[in-house]
Amino acid sequence: MSDFVLDHTMIRVSDLEESMDWYQSHLDYEEKGRWDGDGFTIVYLGPEDVHEDGALLELTHNEGEEDYDLGDAWGHIAVRVEDVHDAYYDLMDEGVEDYRRPEDNPGYAFVKDPDGHEIEIVERDHGAKWSLDHTMIRVEDADEHLGYWTRKFEYEHAGRWEADTFANYFLKPADAPEEAMTVELTYNYDGRSYDLGDAWGHLAVRTSDLHDDWDTLMTREAEDYRDPESCDDMYAFTKDPDGHEIEILDPHDSPVDRS
């Protein structure tokens, strides 16, 4: 497994069983791991044949919490299919709400999960069906964030789209396979600011040595948010310039079974 490859995207859900049923029924996800904590449950989901460097979706359910704010700093997760039109209308036949049709978009479509998290459907010739292709976050300063991901995590450009009013930049580690998830930075030229909300949790990157890589991040002046010692030496957290949380995770300490 590659260092600093994106391991998962975490979202918070109000009804764990409803969300698990939605993702398992419509995206054919299976449970890859689970962690029951004091007042919360974490479940990792993904396709049966997800690549070893592919990303998973983490659902977090906090007991007694049923109303989350989506904010607008997090955009969406994107999943891969061979044919967007067929995949979208298969979901419509299954009772998924009609949201943004492929006829109205150049090669993609959108649906929403039960909590309103947006899911983009994109056509790809690689990766398992419904596997995570990218996670989009909105950023207030494109130059700052491009520098952040390239300096802190040694990410490289994997694609870009520049329009009249906005730009999208895709990044991932240079040695990551094409099946790995990218991070999409969306920059709107009008100078707007964003609300993080609390329905989206974090992005997570893998490490082969949590403490050494944490020290490297500190040398590169990443934010010291939650160091390994404060997280029982199992993981750590930093933040990007806009406050999006990024977990640093040793997969050997994760409940996920990738065998």
TrEMBL record:
Pfam families to which the protein is assigned, alphabetical: Glyoxalase
Domain VOC as annotated: residue spans: 5-124, 131-251
Superkingdom, taxonomy of origin: Archaea
Membrane spanning residue stretches: none
Listed GO MF terms: lactoylglutathione lyase activity
Gene3D superfamilies: 2,3-Dihydroxybiphenyl 1,2-Dioxygenase, domain 1 (3.10.180.10)
InterPro entries: Glyas_Bleomycin-R_OHBP_Dase, Glyas_Fos-R_dOase_dom, VOC_core
Signal sequence interval, chain numbering: none
GO biological process entries: methylglyoxal catabolic process to D-lactate via S-lactoyl-glutathione
Protein name: VOC family protein
PANTHER family with a match to the protein in the record: LACTOYLGLUTATHIONE LYASE
Gene Ontology CC annotation, any one: cytoplasm
